[in-house]
Amino acid sequence: LAAGALLMVSNGDLTHPGPQGSVVPETGALLRAVLACAPGIRPLILGKPAAMLFQEGLRRLGLPAGDVTVIGDNARTDALGAARLGMAYLLVGDAPHADAPDMARLLAAARPRRHALPEGIAADGDQ
């Protein structure tokens, strides 16, 4: 990195929900440690909430952002990425696993949000 190598990361999530409400460290926690040792490095985040992943999904679906609902469990990545591109989103809570019947029930009852992010989440990713 000091010689100019590009630091690419899959996502910047600090944590993800674990079993029985536990919190599991994620890639972003490791990224913060690396950046603390290498100030001035600007990583390329390939996953959520970066636009690239969402744009590729839209391209593959052949749909405009306004016709898509992103389903996720993390407001800071799933909802933020969706909102930045004008997609609706549905947060399924903090459970680490959702099965098809649960998803079908949630979608049937859902009123996906468009643009309004949960409290404490700024559209630019700042908290």
Q: How confident is the prediction overall: mean pLDDT?
A: 81
Number of structural domains:
2
Number of helices: 4
Helix content percent band: 25-40%
Which percent band covers the strand fraction? 15-25%
Parts with pLDDT < 50 across at least 5 consecutive residues: none
Secondary structure: number of strands: 7
H and E string: EEEHEHEHEHE
Strands of the widest sheet, in order across it, are 5-6-7
Distance between the termini: 27 Å
Nearest-angstrom radius of gyration? Answer: 16 Å
Which structural category fits the helices and strands? alpha/beta
Shape assignment: globular
Largest sheet report: 3 strands, mixed
Would you mind describing this structure in some detail?
The chain has 2 domains: 8-45, no CATH class; 51-114, no CATH class. It contains 4 helices and 7 strands; from the N terminus they run βββαβαβαβαβ. The protein has helices spanning 27-37, 51-61, 75-84, 100-109, and strands at residues 8-9, 15-17, 23-25, 44-45, 69-72, 88-91, 113-114. The strands form 3 sheets. A 3-stranded mixed beta sheet has the order 5-6-7, with helices on one face. The mean pLDDT is 81.
